[in-house]
Write a structure and sequence with these properties.
Distance between the termini: 14 Å
Shape: globular
Strand content: 25-35%
Strand order of the largest sheet: 2-3-1-4
Radius of gyration: 11 Å
Number of strands: 4
CATH architecture: 2-Layer Sandwich
Helix content: 25-40%
CATH topology: Alpha-Beta Plaits
Order of helices and strands: EHEHEHE
Number of helices: 3
Number of domains: 1
């Protein structure tokens, strides 16, 4: 986890494939968490391009917990 204040701004969770990102979006919608599927470039991933989710940082813990519960791996991310 990051040490900075997570109550403002946007966070990104890198998921990988567009299929997994869409699945993650559905899981989070069922948990009443709104996210946007985005294409994360290498500045976010540290490697090549991948797909991820963008959401308000205030939801970071809830988003990550819901994804863990659904068995969806977060490959990286952080504040935007």
């Amino acid at each position: 986890m990051h040490s900075e204040n997570k109550t403002t701004g946007e966070c990104i969770a890198v998921i990988g494939s567009v299929t997994q990102a869409m699945r993650a979006q559905r899981v989070l919608a069922e948990a009443s968490l709104r996210v946007e599927v985005i294409r994360a470039d290498s500045t976010v991933t540290g490697r090549g391009c991948a797909y991820g989710l963008m959401y308000p940082c205030v939801q970071d813990e809830a988003v990550r917990a819901a994804l863990r519960g659904a068995g969806i791996r977060v490959r990286g991310g952080g504040r935007r």
